[in-house]
TrEMBL record:
Residues 16-344 form the Enoyl reductase (ER) domain. Keywords: Metal-binding, Oxidoreductase, Zinc. Belongs to the zinc-containing alcohol dehydrogenase family. It catalyses: a primary alcohol + NADP(+) = an aldehyde + NADPH + H(+). Gene3D superfamilies: Medium-chain alcohol dehydrogenases, catalytic domain (3.90.180.10), NAD(P)-binding Rossmann-like Domain (3.40.50.720). Its EC number is 1.1.1.2. PROSITE patterns: ADH_ZINC. It comes from Actinacidiphila oryziradicis. This is alcohol dehydrogenase (NADP(+)). The keyword Zinc applies. Coiled coil: none annotated. InterPro entries: ADH-like_C, ADH-like_N, ADH_Zn_CS, CAD-like, ER, GroES-like_sf, NAD(P)-bd_dom_sf.
Length: 351
């Protein structure tokens, strides 16, 4: 096939409003699939990167790594997918495939050059990557996920980042029956953490700044809800949790939250603040606590997560928007004014 001209929304420069444009997708390589994108989620990391809050970006930038759509063409060597298959693409589209981590199915921790980001990156052939705020994308079949029939494409799209970002640490730290798990932050990531931890069988506590989201959190599966703006919360919950998953992308008083862990408890950070954090090491030493981080999941685990969500009958809580509202959506994300993930209807880009 010849290359595809895709309609897209791109940030032309750092901090500039996104605008409608066109991009060229590469010719299909032997193991590539062409995907007609149906929906793309808006992740807070899209905003961080478009505004160069995580370091220097590559512009024009087409964000988007929560992608759901349908295969429309396949390369000659493709064996995993066929035209018409419902598929997704997450945060990365390649890795070295040969290092210890890639061989173990942990491509997100690739040791040779790192994973190739779905956007704001350069692939291993030297071509710039563009993300899911576009009508089409071309991806190697080995980095494509199958979306189960039990999930509609719109609610499935955010699972490719928000879902796996929470599923991976909850699975790795063995959330389940008999475990007390706190999800810190009830937003695009946190709401998925509540749902997944509940489905795994853990006793789930939602921690959010105010009581504003209490009803939602309990509906999503939280057993308990506390406002972190209330100092009494920290005395009431001291030493309570086996696991805290911190989804907040802002600098917090880590010592205060670490005090909520039991002996041998772990706090796992998945939200990435723009600025550095600090802590008193005695918060760890005093109760053999751990402070860890986690980054999305590999292809195998992401597929496991999609199947888990379909089996339990849930996707993300979404608000679907047309592409011409992306800039408005960015501002609303920054104001925490979304319940709980914006998803772009890519059909609005085809008009």
């Amino acid at each position: 096939m010849t290359s595809v001209t895709a309609t897209a929304y791109a940030a032309p420069a750092p901090k500039a409003p996104l605008e409608r444009t066109t991009i060229e997708r590469r010719d299909l390589r032997e193991h590539d699939v062409l995907i007609d994108i149906a929906y793309a989620g808006i992740c807070h990391s899209d905003i961080h990167q478009a505004r160069e809050e995580w370091g220097r970006g590559s512009f024009p930038m087409v964000p988007g790594h929560e992608i759901a759509g349908v295969v429309s063409e396949v390369g000659p060597g493709v064996t995993k997918y066929a035209v018409g298959d419902r598929v997704g693409v997450g945060c990365f589209v390649d890795s070295c495939r040969e290092c210890e981590q890639c061989q173990a199915g942990l491509e997100q921790y690739c040791q040779v050059g790192g994973m190739t980001g779905t956007y704001n990156d350069t692939d291993r052939q030297g071509e710039k990557t563009y993300g899911g705020y576009s009508t089409h994308i071309v991806v190697d079949e080995n980095y494509v996920l199958r979306i189960p029939e039990g999930l509609s494409l719109d609610v499935a799209a955010p699972l490719l980042c928000a879902g796996i970002t929470l599923y991976s640490p909850l699975a790795h730290w063995n959330a389940g029956p008999g475990k007390k798990v706190a999800i810190l932050g009830v937003g695009g990531l946190g709401h998925m953490g509540i749902r997944i931890a509940h489905a795994m069988g853990a006793e789930v506590t939602a921690l959010s700044q105010s009581l504003r989201k209490k009803e939602d959190a309990l509906r999503l599966g939280a057993d308990h809800y506390y406002a972190t703006s209330d100092p009494e919360t920290f005395s009431a919950l001291a030493g309570s949790f086996d696991l805290i998953v911190n989804t907040v992308s802002a600098v917090l008083d880590l010592d205060a939250y670490l005090s909520l862990l039991k002996v041998d408890g772990s706090m796992v950070v998945v939200g990435a603040p723009e600025n550095a954090s600090s802590l008193n090491l005695f918060s760890l030493i005093g109760a053999r606590r751990s402070l860890s981080g986690s980054s999305i999941g590999g292809i195998r685990e992401t597929q496991e997560m999609l199947d888990f969500c379909a089996e339990h009958g849930f996707g993300a809580e979404i608000e679907v928007i047309n592409a011409d509202r992306i800039n408005e959506a960015y501002e609303r994300v920054m104001a925490s004014d979304v319940r709980y993930r914006f998803v772009i209807d890519i059909a609005s880009l085809r008009d």
